[in-house]
Amino acid sequence: MGNDASPRYLTKSRFKLALECPTKLFYTKKKEYPDQKIDNAFLKALANGGFQVGELAKCYFPEGHDIDDLDYEISLAKTNELLKSDHVTIYEAAFLYQNLFIRADVVVKKGNKIFLYEVKAKSIDGSNPSFLTKKEAIETKWKPYLYDTAFQKYVVQKSFPEFSVEAYLILADKSAKASVDGLNQKFFLSTDTHGRTKVDVLGDISASSLGDKILCVVAVDHIVDPLLQDAPFSDNPDKSFIEWINFYAENYNQDKLIRSSVKASCRDCEFKLLNIEDGQRSGFNECWKREVGFIDADFAKPSILNIWDLRTKDKFFSEGRYFQNDLLDVDLIPKTSTTKENMGLSRLDRQILQITKSRDGDFGDYLDTDGLANVFKGFTYPLHFIDFETSAVAIPFNKGRKPYEQTAFQFSHHIVYEDGTVEHKGEWLDQRVGVFPNFDFVRALKAELSLDDGTIFRYAAHENSILNAIYRQLQESNEPDKVELCFWIQEITKSSSSTADKWEGKRNMVDLRDLVLKYYYSPSTNGSNSIKDILPAILNSSEFLKEKYSQPIYGRDIKSLNFTDQTWITYDDLGKVINPYKKLEPLFKDVDQDLLDTLISDEDIEIADGGAAMTAYARMQFTQMAEEERKIIQNSLLKYCELDTLAMVMIYEHWKNKIAK
Asked: For residue range 239-293, what is the model confidence (pLDDT) as tens digits?
């Protein structure tokens, strides 16, 4: 059933996939099983900086031979020939053992020793690198990388048993500071004539030009070698690590499906199709039909998979319970008592509300107007709604900056006055290339929000975390106004756990998402509390918003900095309000915006917020583009960020209208 005639080798990426779920090995790269994850190496490279980190790592191993042939036999032949030298450095060296094939990022051969280096766009404290818990187990977040390295070492060692092999990870060192300016502008992304992502290295890359090393080399044999012993694999003790490798390789080679039990992680399966077209098959649906006897109608029922923040899903699945109406309230109550929220719904209350509405077939929204009215009494007008777009570039902009430091490149700001007037008051987008924007960002934000003492709203913890990060950066800086800026940050935030100083500002921002969790629930969100799901739910239930925004008033009667005569309320064929985010031009053509936003959930991405905007910013920073194209991206970023704060305003307006009734 394979779609190509090339050898069916178990590669690094396929081994990683098998560790996630071995059944996916049967589905992967088959046209009839569409993969819903973004299969766009260029966009992924923009998002995580992996290619640039890889290229910088090569600079630390100069005069290497780059094997860029995709053909298995050619790349293997070139590697084998180079390894005949007594001392050689190879990039993308190819190794084959039985049905196992790898390309190693960097290999250095010295005499009878092979040094294997796996480069990852992840950060670690290079002054004290550790991958283990206090109980000497591998930390969950490091397992994929260490298992990957163990797999590679096994293949290399078996391919060349006459050599001894030492394994290392090369990671971004978050304790290191760049000692030169413009380091990240030496590595630009592009595509070659075959459409493959590549890095164009610009300018001088000598050791003196690169400055102090910001990547660290960490020996991992003490962790990898025990995995390669003949002992049960701790994650799946039915076989040893090597036996699992061979099991996956044999089944993949023969194109045999490996059955897996259903589990909570199935919720994010990339082979789940919401709309199945002719010739397509849903791997997710087939698994659930095969393993637990689902029929087509079952996939439309409210699933336990979608219960918000439920951590016992696998337990219920093991008991043969898969639907929300299979559960009773008592099933969700923990054995140990939990602290009851002072106001609003607790986590448990919200989960019980979700399954109760499901059991009762109640599709109406829940809104605690009394609770919200009490909260609203504490607000000071005018109200400010802000949203940030941020990144965390792998290679620092400037001297003195560290890898993956938070970078704030954009904000949007709406105001609601006491008489109900709405205004898109301000915005800021750093359009400069190769400039660390954070201090200018916070100065612009301060200028926007310091004109009055009105309540400031954010959605989720992100804005508070970013301002804490900028506070720490300012403390270490020589900015002339750093004391004033730090004092202002303290005024509108609360300190995070990673900030040494502790405070809660007198004007501490209100988390609108926290109010959603405590006072509002809609079954149509499927358990999600993302603003992109909350907004359409509220628009579909609010007659007030439908009437107000069904007219082209936005950018006419309501001040907007990016829209003119915009109508936000339109309907699909089923009479549902179309999500306003779907009205915007996508930041990247032919790429689903929602998928791009979830790109950051991939384990290879260092940060976890705003995938689409973050990727667009990286594109402006690290690719060559015409000024016209750059302007299009900038305009799109401004519109998306403005809609984020308008969405917050609409949520507030709906609640305010309900309270007034």
From this structure: 999 999 999 999 999 999 999 999 999 999 999 998 888 999 999 999 999 999 9
Supply the DSSP string of 136-202, one letter for each residue: SPBPGGGHHHHHHHHHHHHHHHHH-TTSEEEEEEEEEETT---SSSSGGGGEEEEE-TTS-EEEEE-
Output the six-digit token pair for 201.
Answer: 């290295």
Within its chain, how far is the Cα of 432 from the centroid? 24
User: Which letter does DSSP use for residue 234 in this model?
Assistant: T
DSSP, collapsed to helix, strand or coil, labels residue 347 as helix
Tokens of 330: 């008592």
CA distance 199 to 68: 13
Contact 181, 211 (CB under 8 A): no
Tell me which residue of 272, 308, 302, 312 sits closest to 289, measured CA to CA: 272
Structural contact between residues 92 and 105, judged by C-beta atoms closer than 8 angstroms = yes
pLDDT beyond 70 at 206: yes
Q: Count Cβ atoms below 10 Å from residue 495 Cβ, excluding itself.
A: 17
Indicate the pTM of the whole model: 0.91
Distance separating alpha carbons of residues 562 and 555, to the nearest angstrom: 8
Q: In the β-sheet with 215-219, what is the strand arrangement from edge to edge?
A: 65-66, 87-97, 100-110, 113-124, 164-173, 215-219
Residues 128 and 103: beta-carbon distance below 8 Å: no
Q: How far apart are CA 618 and CA 435, in angstroms?
A: 12
In tens, the pLDDT along 361-374 reads 999 999 999 999 99
Q: Which range, 175-184, 445-454, 614-623, has the best average confidence (pLDDT)?
A: 445-454
